[in-house]
Amino acid sequence: MPMAKRQEQEEARTEVSEVAPGVMRMELPIHMPGLGHVNCYAIIDKDGAAVVDPGLPGPGTWRALGERLGQIGMTTKNVHTVIVTHSHPDHFGGASRFAKESGAKVVAHRTFRFGPMGSDDHAEVSADDLAAEEPDSDHPEAPPEPKSPTESMRDFSKGKTPWGGERPRPPLKTRLKWRMMGALGRSSIVPEVTHPVEHGDVLVLANREWFVVHTPGHTGDHFCLHDPDTGLFLAGDHVLPTITPHISGISSSPDPLSSFFYSLDRVAEIRDVQTVLPAHGHPFDDLKARSEAIKRHHHERLDQVISISREIGRPADVQSFMQQLFKPRSWGAMAESETYAHLEHLRIAGNAERSNDAEGTYLYLA
Ligand SMILES: [Zn+2]
Ligand SMILES: [Zn+2]
After folding, report:
1. Per-chain residues with Cβ under 5 A from ion ligand 1
2. Mean pLDDT by 10 residues, the chain (366 residues)
3. Residue 285 Cα to ligand 1 middle (Å)
4. How many whole angstroms from 71 Cα to the centroid of ligand 2?
5. What is the per-residue DSSP string for 105-155?
6. Ligand 2 center to residue 312 CA distance, Å?
7. What is the pLDDT of residue 187?
8. Which ligand is nearest to the CA of 278?
């Protein structure tokens, strides 16, 4: 029996919907594991529009943006501000083109960075995938220049993960497309942030004051926006309606899961949120309940990891844990990376031990 489609998987619809006064939801097409669209929100004012998370790089998204804006009597030239909630390509894709064509400001967290040595994980795509050259297989690459390499960055530049698995990558077709665009120059894809923000900053958009809420976890540079007057909350990928956002073990933080828990508590405490506008899926209202449910899910996962370790009865590699933690259809680099994040969380809390096998692969006993 086919499984019901989750709302985050729904194909992008062309209709634009007004989800709050002056805030329009525009669905843009993406095809990623578990995701069929990304929501770009347009906040309308007398000068034009600010857009939040303008989709993937490339002409398809750009056409969709032009068409959706057309429905509300605007063109891409009317966009004066682009807000990027975090450094994933399905969120920052259209930003540099808006900057070039309409002179839009680009707002992102001050730690926004995209690249293998950047602030965060690149589960969906790595900087290699944006490079013009063929970086696959055993090609020697330039030595990394880590500023403050965390242990989890070990060997990342060689295309291997710290636990000896394959690095998470998007499908080949997507990578080739991005590489072709990358040939036009990296700056045509990765935006230059003109207005870096941090926690507590206030953005005035459409005569409303929006507070920047820094929410590291899904990426270290992730932030949400909250308007206390109308109770609107732009959630990005931090809190999604029916799926849990991917938490990657490859991160600038040694324990991204702890950061994520902290950020879930941070948003659950915000009072009077009326409408949550997520980057994937439909708007919803109970931010606190949803944040708590996501946290619960990860705590259950941590408990599962401990019982899996007990069953195995000896130190085991990340892949062995992953195969018991996830259903076979989810097996792969992303699931491994998330499993690694859970194992490291347990290790740092003193609830697991890590050793190496003869090849240097990490083994865990929880
Ligand atoms: Zn994301
Ligand atoms: Zn996303």
Report:
1. 88, 237
2. 80 97 97 91 97 95 98 97 96 96 97 63 36 26 32 46 74 69 70 97 95 97 97 98 92 92 98 96 98 97 97 96 94 93 97 93 95
3. 21
4. 24
5. EEEEETT---STTSSS--SS--GGGG-SS---TT---PPP--SS--GGGTT
6. 35
7. 67
8. 2
Domain boundary among 231, 261, 294: 294
User: For position 331, what pLDDT does the model report?
Assistant: 92
Q: Whose atoms come closest to the Cα of 218: which ligand?
A: 1
Contact 253, 259 (CB under 8 A): yes
Domain end, chosen from 294, 311, 346, is at: 294
Cα 261 from Cα 181, distance rounded (Å): 36
272 Cα to the center of ligand 2, angstroms: 25
CA of 124 to the centre of ligand 2 (A): 9
We report the CATH number of the domain holding residue 336 as 1.10.10.10
Which residue range forms the structural domain that includes residue 82?
A: 7-113+188-294
CATH number, domain containing residue 83: 3.60.15.10
Map tokens 């990304």 to a residue: 38
**Residue 161 covered by a domain:** no
Cα(249)–Cα(340) distance, rounded to whole angstroms? Answer: 5
